[in-house]
Write a structure and sequence with these properties.
Blueprint (H helix, E strand, L loop, with lengths): L13 H20 L1 H13 L3 H17 L1 H11 L1 H19 L5 H15 L2 H12 L2 H33 L2 H21 L12 H8 L20 H4 L3 H31 L4 H7 L1 H25 L2 H25 L3 H17 L1 H12 L3 H16 L1 H11 L5 H19 L32
Length: 453
Amino acid sequence: MEMEKLDESGHSHVRWVVLLLLCLMYLITYLDRVSLANTAPFIMKEYGFSKVTMGVIFSAFIWAYALFQVPGGWLGDRFGPRRVLSSIMAYRTVIAVLTTMATGFYSLWAIRFVLGIGEAGAFPTATRAMQMWYPRDERGFVQGISHAASRFGAAIGPPIAVAIMIHYGWRSVFYVIGALSLMWSFLYMLVYRNMPEENSKVSRAELARIRGLDEKGEIKRANVAKRPKVPWSILLKHGNMWAVMCAYAAYIYSLWFFLSWLPSYLVEYRKFTLIKMGFFASLPLAAGVVGDAFGGWLTDKLLVKTNNLKFARRSVAIVAMLGCATSTLFAALSTNPFTAIYCLTVAMFFLEMTIGPAWAVPMDIGGEFSGTVSGMMNMGGQFVGALSPTIFGYLVSRGSWVAPFVVSASLLFVGAAIWAFWIDPEQSVIDRGEGMTGPSVGILPTPVATVNR
């Protein structure tokens, strides 16, 4: 697209409209993910499921989600976020309706599995959109704020689900989610474009902020290859890629307690009523909203202040993981139910602080393959995360509500060590050389499509 078609009227802020759209998608996504946890007490009663059986059903989504992370991220890189994300959300509408038609264990397990297949590409593809719409010093923030929106969706999920279930039954929760997903899909197709250059409302000033200026003072050209060829042989052997995957696995394992067993934990072990559960289950998730935004803001702030990418990404993630591990152990060992939930609230705040640096790193090290790289990271995390609900259910069925938290905290300590000693946000995972993947805006310098002044 020629620059003459861009807005000449001055400054524009289209990238923040894009961020709003992505935040809405993340919010709806997590409303959907916690919907099964919030309806689990009713579903277990209706179908006669045990805790172990329900844990296996929780894990069905995560296994599929993990398996299809890389294909989903690759689709986002290949066909662009506009088509891929709108298709994912429309697909979710169909699955939400099918959930209400489940007849037992096998059908519900299969429905959750196919939901995971379709939803796997959502966050990697959104990461690709962010990589093309935001400069490097805004990436931690946009990842943090979008994930904050997702946790806000999870936080408001329990009270909304309780209100709907009391009046209309648990199936109505999924009808609402299906309707929201479909409306977002239409809105996204109408408003969003894959590249800032394709949006006539983007001004020269905003494009210069996104792309940066070269040594001649001209706006840099963007790599807009439609079908990039992924360097799999390099990516799959790169130690930095495996370190990112392993550290994220420690995060995901702990996260899935909050997304699966938290309501049941509060009702069955801490003896909260259903109404109190709806309120107190939202507290950790609300703290996660703040943690996401704060961690993303902090990693970018440190980058601007120090101009040290390693320090900016690593320091936030290490402190966050150590804080979450410690708070988790305090929650597990507390005899007071209110102290336990407050400790879990602090734990979730620290846990979500890792999101900003964790999801900024794939954009730092992945270049034009940031969707694929973030898919690899999320895949590694979700494979381990898929074990979390099942292990939690198994350990509880053996009589211990403390042991699952000890396992989670131990993994977080390991994750902090990986961030400290192995993850290098300045080392590309898509080429054989070492160092940054590109200039400060994160765009590969090789021009594929021309952007003229």
